[in-house]
Ribonuclease PH
Amino acid sequence: MTSDFTRADGRDLDQMRSVRITRGFTSNPAGSVLIEYGNTRVMCTASVEEGVPRFKKGSGEGWLTAEYSMLPAATHDRMPRESMRGKVKGRTHEISRLVGRALRAAVDLSKLGENTINIDCDVLQADGGTRTASITGAYVALADAIAVLQDAGVVPGQPLLPPVVAVSVGLVDGHVCLDLPYEEDSRAEVDLNVVMTEAGKFVEIQGTGEHGDFGREQLTEMLDVAEKGCRELVAAQKAALGV
Amino acid sequence: MTSDFTRADGRDLDQMRSVRITRGFTSNPAGSVLIEYGNTRVMCTASVEEGVPRFKKGSGEGWLTAEYSMLPAATHDRMPRESMRGKVKGRTHEISRLVGRALRAAVDLSKLGENTINIDCDVLQADGGTRTASITGAYVALADAIAVLQDAGVVPGQPLLPPVVAVSVGLVDGHVCLDLPYEEDSRAEVDLNVVMTEAGKFVEIQGTGEHGDFGREQLTEMLDVAEKGCRELVAAQKAALGV
Amino acid sequence: MTSDFTRADGRDLDQMRSVRITRGFTSNPAGSVLIEYGNTRVMCTASVEEGVPRFKKGSGEGWLTAEYSMLPAATHDRMPRESMRGKVKGRTHEISRLVGRALRAAVDLSKLGENTINIDCDVLQADGGTRTASITGAYVALADAIAVLQDAGVVPGQPLLPPVVAVSVGLVDGHVCLDLPYEEDSRAEVDLNVVMTEAGKFVEIQGTGEHGDFGREQLTEMLDVAEKGCRELVAAQKAALGV
Amino acid sequence: MTSDFTRADGRDLDQMRSVRITRGFTSNPAGSVLIEYGNTRVMCTASVEEGVPRFKKGSGEGWLTAEYSMLPAATHDRMPRESMRGKVKGRTHEISRLVGRALRAAVDLSKLGENTINIDCDVLQADGGTRTASITGAYVALADAIAVLQDAGVVPGQPLLPPVVAVSVGLVDGHVCLDLPYEEDSRAEVDLNVVMTEAGKFVEIQGTGEHGDFGREQLTEMLDVAEKGCRELVAAQKAALGV
Amino acid sequence: MTSDFTRADGRDLDQMRSVRITRGFTSNPAGSVLIEYGNTRVMCTASVEEGVPRFKKGSGEGWLTAEYSMLPAATHDRMPRESMRGKVKGRTHEISRLVGRALRAAVDLSKLGENTINIDCDVLQADGGTRTASITGAYVALADAIAVLQDAGVVPGQPLLPPVVAVSVGLVDGHVCLDLPYEEDSRAEVDLNVVMTEAGKFVEIQGTGEHGDFGREQLTEMLDVAEKGCRELVAAQKAALGV
Amino acid sequence: MTSDFTRADGRDLDQMRSVRITRGFTSNPAGSVLIEYGNTRVMCTASVEEGVPRFKKGSGEGWLTAEYSMLPAATHDRMPRESMRGKVKGRTHEISRLVGRALRAAVDLSKLGENTINIDCDVLQADGGTRTASITGAYVALADAIAVLQDAGVVPGQPLLPPVVAVSVGLVDGHVCLDLPYEEDSRAEVDLNVVMTEAGKFVEIQGTGEHGDFGREQLTEMLDVAEKGCRELVAAQKAALGV
């Protein structure tokens, strides 16, 4: 833990990469957002469909589900397309489920009517943090999609809950670093993804000692840094939404 | 065939939609292009991989293959993701094969060494003509990828052949129209896709009487209009490539 | 383009292989035909099923769909069975879709009631032209199946439209040749498949420069030869049907 | 068990349907046979491939494997194609395995060299007894394929063992009937398939009480009748092979 | 066939391995049994579900279906998990179908109401005879599940029929041996599986000459020995059920 | 958070269910353990295979991978078998990956030689906590498998690292509860799974606000309780292993 540790891109340890949120990135889905955390670029869309899955039928409530995917050329070395392999990788499933849980924390399903919102997060360019960028971007797409439903008079109330954002923190060479790019992520001792509400509450935390374990103090330090990042991400979402 | 036929977007019958080609759209693949034919937007990438498929091993020649796909939210109504369905639709297969054949006409495989170029065409937004835009955009991505190989000294000669482009023409309410958007495409009597070289030769023509058949004169008229569009597309490619 | 070009089987350049059509080849489906273009032999059946796919429900119209497949031992070297591989090849999908489009041009769906006709084209022996033989043979099976429906009083009118046939033409060593066997097909510079009505109108044309491109004059010449072949195929269909 | 029981097609209880064996049914595979048990028609081919599966590599021995399949229109009501469903039905697997075991009893793998024989049995028309006809027909195709290997000097010895045949017997309305067509098979109390060598030894017996169980005496009676049928099938094979 | 043949585990030729049946092995399914034939251990469950498959809808009758599977570490060398391979092996299908047929002979579907019983046989440890142990154990699970239905007043009558059991017999070095463990099974000349009712009637017999064929006398001898084993298995079932 | 909150099974809030670990549960794999957390019962095996996956070839290091699965009748309502559905559920993938990461923290791959350890966790009976029980049980199976490798002289050093265990904690009606059974798990506001080493360090933490979010103090309280449970689980592992 020498004092001369510097990050490849020159950022401070607790500094986010530059975050850009572009609304209306495409025009067909009700909400369509391009989010960028540095070089990581994810297209997040929210599409509305009438009706709900079988297990929700007749409940009077809505549903939200999410799918995450990498374009084959998003990564440094091209990866085979999952549709051609005929099956979805475990990692893809895992992240799709995470995004779905996170976004369900941002919507009051009881106010959505029996409608389903499909979140799609397609990574155009990957440089670490694709799952966290997906969540932060999908919230903005969700907000836009719900506004469309409200404008159309489909939902009378306000199903949208306050912002939900996500960021990664890691222990790299013993230093707690915020928002890891691929180069840091791949050699981090510990990788922690935090999904947080505007109020600073956790929706999900997933910490993994990829190359080593970690103690309570390190967890505390990582959560502090994550919280700082999340506050900034909420601000970026609000600026993008103009609220 | 009344004289008062007008196109929804006000174009002349033989007028292309606005074509935009953005090189370097993403940074990981050797070639990465966003191509737009009006509202149709396709990300075309060319990734280079050492080695060739089994049937080319030891030939001293390279190979080029292509995959086409629609993002689920690219269309007006969201379509299920093929990776989740576990199988690729016939339409996807058909277009992937067309793109591959078209681009193989733009590369001299014997000068590529035993390397494989993977073309990926991912439709971000669909409004008709996604297969033709894919071909035109992929040529530019291919050119950039081959330049990378040349700069790296991997290929000594010039494997890139002159431009290959593609456009659709259709018979709509009895009128030959160039470059159909979705609205026209879905009600066209005849749909013709033409893949052409800079020299005005055909690489592929596919004409289908979706709601009616067509005669020799109509074919001739459609090919004339397609040729006009193709000349403009070659110009757009060259402008983008700065050649 | 020397004058001493001869075809391996001694045919004239614009001569069809011997065409044989055997109706009632099997007894379970409403229409069952064995069609032979020389050594290419395809079993074409038309099966009638009550009801239509979801997207046609309530339309009062019928539907027609087609599936093409090669038996594993149909080719010179045995090919793995697609059912065992668990997925259908792109080529199979592409041809199935072509056959379906071609045959839908031979039936007035609005006169079929809400019934579905399933066309199955199973190649028993392959020697080039399997997709074109499939279309020509399937028309005869379709005619027989519609006659069954009429005899049963299920369809009051005449859903059957005039003959639809298909043939391949190619550019082999610079010569336009009709109805290519495998040996010619595999080395042809250009391969053109033409689906035509009795009236000489195109239902579909698909021309591919597999090893080279082609110009307008060559296209014209190829279409002339294809038209000659198609006229003969219509005659063969009519002879088989006794009309 | 009234004495007035008659079979729908007028046969004696212990009488086979008419058996026809056509060699050289198609020309690409080394052996190709059309076998008919009455209205049941199966195309049986034997294709030779150099090399053996991994578990046989280096053994100096050959291998034989078999695949059985129904064409979709072979049955009275069309059945979905397994390649399109993306999976093979249990029944298909079961019969493929049975045919493989039966035919391996007809070949001395140690005299085959490291070659694989692929047996394909594709049912063109189904009227009961498709698995037994497959086995009987495949033996003839196997004999032809081995003759090809011998003529080519690939196998010095005689890998072909004496004939293997198969027939079904059933208990229908309490009567032991030989070679059940579909109508009898579907209502039989007991269904027994017997695979037998020329010497009258069993290679496989599979008896199932579909709608009832059966005792030792009934088994004995059924085996007697099966043995009669098998003798006749061996004679038919030998006649077809001219030995 | 020397007189000094001894079995690896010292059993008499016609002696079963030790059979243990543990009811209530798990608590969620209506019937749950662990059955052991020596070292072979199978968990057999019977789960009840309201409703029947489509082909039984409206019949007033119930249905019974079965699935057999090996845990990956059940065998000496771990086998890949079928769910991960994405397809079920032919052997698995074949045994699942056998178990289903056998158990349907133990239930009067007409007295079950429109309910479905799902039999699951999961092999925890494999040492030969897994399919036969599955059948014998599943009967006990079925009995328990039907008792639950009766206690709940769902079925007024008695759908359970008398015991069905299964055992393997084989010809090992020319000796007829009962209940083969893996070591004997893998080198047996003939393998015969017999499914029998309490009354000594056959539900199913499947005899295979894996490395040789067999004659009528050998079949008779094998059936005699199988019958002895089956009587003992029925006694074990009844002891377990306390009837 | 009334003081009268009681758990359905009468446990204290920070009390584990009864934990039982049975070594040598089956005999084929190198390590085989049945672990029970109350009514949750998981069979955990560790199988050793020579060689490593491609990405580890030539590294001199070993690999460990894990697969988790539910038997269909493990749950209250039977669930369809993943092998029959032809695809693995996201939840299964997610847990398999978690178990793999957790167990890789318990083995020094550099001391394993180029061998692969396959962990299989098959849930026989599910009552909440199946993923945490899988991890705790798999460690014991891993220890036994490594001992086998050491006894065989395959690994000279000690690849086994100190114990790794896992437990769930949840917020139920506002109370922090240890080791949730299904009934509590399904209605918990927050669900936290903790994987911990003997030294009290985290290998992985996954906290999800299923029906609500949670703050830093609640996280701290949950981690305290989890730590208590983990200490007891390590003691149970050591008792089982006799160390």
In short: Chain B touches chain D at residues 86-87 (CB under 8 Å). The first helix of chain B runs from residue 82 to 85.
